[in-house]
Amino acid sequence: IALAAEDTSPETAPQVFAEMIALITRLVLFTRVHASSERRVIRQKINAARELILEQSFKRIDFHGLAASLGLSYTVFRRMFQKETGHAPLEYQIEVRISRARVLLEQTDQSISEIAQQTGFANVFYFSKMFSKRAGQTPSSYRQNAVARKHPRTT
Question: How far is it, in rounded angstroms, from Cα 78 to Cα 87?
């Protein structure tokens, strides 16, 4: 504000008020633009993380290291990732693995153990537990139902 603090006569009050409103407006606009730009950068970082998880879903991923490589703390990374995807990073990775396992169960004759290994699960028991929890049925049942859907019985 250009006016001196001691120049607060009733005649200058409208000018001081107008300058204060203009200053506040500029501050609000600057904050909005800066926040929007920051959100866009974080969204790009989260999308990069999603791509990496999709490409490397069968491997063990160090999410703390991934967050650091993106220039984010793990807490901010996890919160923003969940906001963007609806899942925490590890849950997202498990969902990707299960999704790939469903395709393999439907389209191949690979054993459940082979599919578990191929999709990145440490062992077939953990795979079966995670698959059942998310699909509502065991991998074997899922495969049988997929075959039945593919080749329905006609009587």
Answer: 9
